[in-house]
Design brief:
Elements lengths: L1 H18 L3 H4 L2 H5 L1 E4 L2 E5 H46 L3 H14 L5 E8 H5 L12 H6 L3 E5 L1 H8 L7 E9 L3 E9 L12 H17 L4
Antiparallel strand pairs: 1-2, 3-6, 4-5, 5-6
Length: 222
């Protein structure tokens, strides 16, 4: 019962102070005489406690701002790399040149350990027995038609990259679509955390669009 009374009494005090924010202006001596227990040491005055709270809050805001600035810098660097890759792809006039550009740029500018572009005609995708080994493993991804990131088990990693990137790792899978071809651009890393499930896919969507448009230009509809 006493705890309920104490809780009710405290609630009324808190309500009174909230409704009368000028209370401590009329009783400034309380700011120095009231002592507030502190988690890390001796009790401090109410004023000192308020200052510490403000300093802690300012510290959190500063760290959040620094994180946002770093994310913005990362995004800017990523966009610059995508811009350079786009310029290189514009110069490509054949499928082989597109493949070579993707290998060079994604390995060089984006530090990928492996890059594969797998393309199939509509006829191949409709066949019961697709000639490309292991395609069935990725049929769910191709039906979803959106980029995905994450670690890959050894069988999937091997099917995608062969001996390029070791036995296992992580990969970003990007759907590629043209009028006549469908498939995926796979970017692999030996690091299983490099491409994780929480990684943003906006960049991958833009990359997929650029590659799809380039392939459409070098492999026009017949």
């Amino acid at each position: 019962m006493s705890s309920e009374i104490d809780a009710d009494f405290e609630a009324r005090i808190a309500s009174y102070l909230a409704q009368h924010p000028d209370f401590f202006l009329r009783h400034e001596e309380l700011l120095e005489t009231l002592r507030v227990p502190h988690r890390t040491g001796d009790a401090v005055s109410l004023l000192e406690h308020k200052i510490r709270m403000l300093e802690d809050k300012a510290g959190r805001y500063r760290r959040q701002l620094e994180e946002l600035i770093e994310v913005a810098r990362d995004n800017d660097r990523l966009n610059q790399r995508l811009h350079q890759l786009t310029l290189r792809l514009i110069e490509a006039t054949t499928l082989d040149e597109v493949l070579a550009t993707l290998q060079d740029e994604l390995r060089g500018r984006f530090q990928a350990d492996a890059v594969e572009l797998k393309l199939f005609s509509e006829e191949e995708l409709e066949q019961a027995h697709v000639s490309e080994a292991g395609l069935a493993i990725f049929q769910k991804f191709m039906r979803a038609d959106k980029p995905t990131c994450g670690p890959l088990a050894g069988d999937k990693f091997k099917v995608l990259f062969g001996d390029q990137a070791g036995e296992s790792g992580s990969a970003a899978l990007i759907p590629i679509r043209t009028t006549e071809l469908s498939g995926m651009l796979a970017i692999g890393s030996r690091d299983r955390e490099r491409f994780h499930a929480g990684k943003g896919v906006d960049f991958l969507i833009r990359l997929g669009e650029v590659v799809s448009l380039t392939l459409q230009a070098v492999h026009p509809q017949r």
